Amino acid sequence: MQTQRITDRVATSEPRFVEYPKPDPDAPNVLVVVLDDIGFAQLGCFGAGFETPNIDRLAAGGLRYNRFHVTAVCSATRAALLTGRNHHAVGMGVTEEAALGFPGYTGRIPPTAATLARTLRDHGYNTMAVGKWHLTPQVEYSAAGPFDRWPLGMGFERYYGFLGAETNQWAPELVRDNTPIDPPRTPEEGYHLTEDLVDQAIRMIQDQQQAESRKPFFCYLATGAAHAPHQVPTEWIEPYVGQFDDGWEAWRQRAYDKQVAEGVVPPGTTLTERPEWVPAWDDLSADERRLFARYMEVFAGFVTHTDHHLGRLFDHLEERGLADDTLVMILSDNGASAEGGPTGTVNEAAGWLELNEDVETALAQIDTIGGPDANNHYPWGWAWAGNAPLRLWKRYAWLGGVRTPLVVRWGDRLAEPGGVRQQFCHAVDLYATVLEAAGVEAPASVDGIPQQPVDGASMLPSFRDPGAAEHRTQQYFEMMGSRGIYHDGWKAVTDHVANQFGERAHLGGSHDFDTDRWSLFRLADDFSEADDVAAEHPDVVRRLEGLWWAEAGRNNVLPLFEFPGSMAHMHPGAYPLAESAVYRPGGSPVPVPQLPSQVGGFVLTAHVDVPDGGASGILAALGDRHGGWAFYLLDGRPVATFALLDGARRVAAADPVPVGPHVVELRYLPGRDARAVIAVDGVEVAEGPVPGLVFFPNVSTAAGGLLVGRDRGIAVSADYRPPFPFTGTLDRVELRSGAPDARPESATAIRVAVASD
């Protein structure tokens, strides 16, 4: 660079100005909408019998891809989408809850794989992310960071959403940019997360465009819907009452018929048969049918509600004249979820631990399903139906896990709008597709760091030509031991059954990699993976298995994920868990991974000063009524409530804490005779049994945390309504671990970690 001339006078000095990156004049705005746990048949334009008119409207003016594939769980798909690399190649072999010390499973996207957001930002785009992130390790959720794997550290300039696998739709754990915040309204005031996320996306786009309409934007909107808990206002459920009374076989058949009629599924496709582990609807009791239909009514309302709010965003683009210049992609991160188990559950976190309540217990709560008092997930019969005409579901390399809807709209840049494209494609391809549309080349280096090869290839030729040649002839699949590979129209997949959700007690297949059997399908002729031709083509099976091992080596798939053995190698955070910590009122929630371990019990000590007339309110609270604990004064009396996965346990003192300074203590003592003890100034004032598991997966996966001096969202106990602030003086609380070296690596705790996707 030539030396800049600077003298003591402006007139004889040479000015130079910062050169801002400018995108191609024809570069489109980009909107990527990632839905959660939506199966192949769970959008109206892909066969669903429930309403998604706004997404259908986009499909009518755009394209549907019926051979679009993902990784089978959310973190992995999101990493592949945003980096253009295979999920193991960027350390996202499973979900963030199971980040391990192996290259393909670290849960940490490396700087050698700069994201789509970073690349577009470097070429003059504004970048914004809204909604579910799930690409930050749990041990990095806190206000201590590090923040380089939060959205703003990964190339996004704005962020509003939640960091974890899921969150309560009525009372989410929210972050704005790098700061935890409270939801703007309460459940009682009508708050719902989906509405809020769309509001935020509209506001970000509006602000950006009003500031500089000549600059394109990339908006990444990832809804919490339709991941469990399935929660939605009652008025969205009511239109579906009675629509699922004839059961999952009948619904699946109707979806298939619609798919064939609309060309989403080729004529002659086999509707794969109901597996034996999904009960026949007619064999269920009347109570089971009533309950199971209600779970699906809620799910359908949840999806339609989501579509309604997405419609507000689509309308905003049209009203501002942005629609034709915006490349929109709508997809799901994996197939429908079977994590509700055979019978569904009103508390999905309990379901992860195979603690599903019996039908009678769930029926007693049927009117709460979908509302703030339930944490529900439907039975796996609906997941099977929702992936019609495919087999299996989320977490498996079978098509029911890895083939999901993809809708694309881009003004007049698409040939034959309303059509169905049949090219084989994968989430890794979206990165290259967007870059080509924007006129941007994938960078060779970012911040001086050489970039690893991009695995995706652009789908843009198929936008313009329905008969375009397939850009992808090979793609491996692997998720939690389930393996598959596609090559030149063939697909091979193993019969491995993961050791999760009790599925090995129901699903047929192999429980050991050494005994896994490879099935073979000619997908060019067998759209639904129905006809296993492995016996007729053993040479093809051997060849594809060899290709899979080659891809496994190239992409860091090994060692294969095994449950529970892999969980002994969890990736640690920057610091080991503290034995004890002191917290004061007024801060944001402290996430569970940063708290002293509670697995081996704990002692919570609160230093209070009770005024004349007594005091009430929260001393400390963690979680909500679906899983957590709270320690508080109620009419002056110390009370502890543990919301366990199978019910609440409450211990209360008989007398109020006297006026003046005191030390109020809660001790949780685990074991065969687990109990809680409350003490005031060292004197025990209450004791009671606390049988059950004090481990709160729904808190950790939602990035929830400990609050001091108040609560928020949904209360742990019916004794109070948040925020229930402490009315005396609360100086501090100390949380001390009963077993500082304990990690959540018991069999049940591990089951949670690998299930929260």
Automatic annotation (TrEMBL):
Keyword Metal-binding annotated: yes
Residue ranges of every copy of the Sulfatase N-terminal domain listed in the record: 28-440
Enzyme Commission numbers on file: 3.1.6.-
Enzyme class, first EC level, given as a word: hydrolase
A molecular-function term among this protein's GO annotations: hydrolase activity
CDD domains reported in the protein's UniProt record: PAS_like
UniProt keyword Calcium present: yes
Keywords: Calcium, Hydrolase, Metal-binding
SUPFAM superfamilies hit by this protein: Alkaline phosphatase-like
UniProt similarity note: Belongs to the sulfatase family.
UniProt protein name: Arylsulfatase
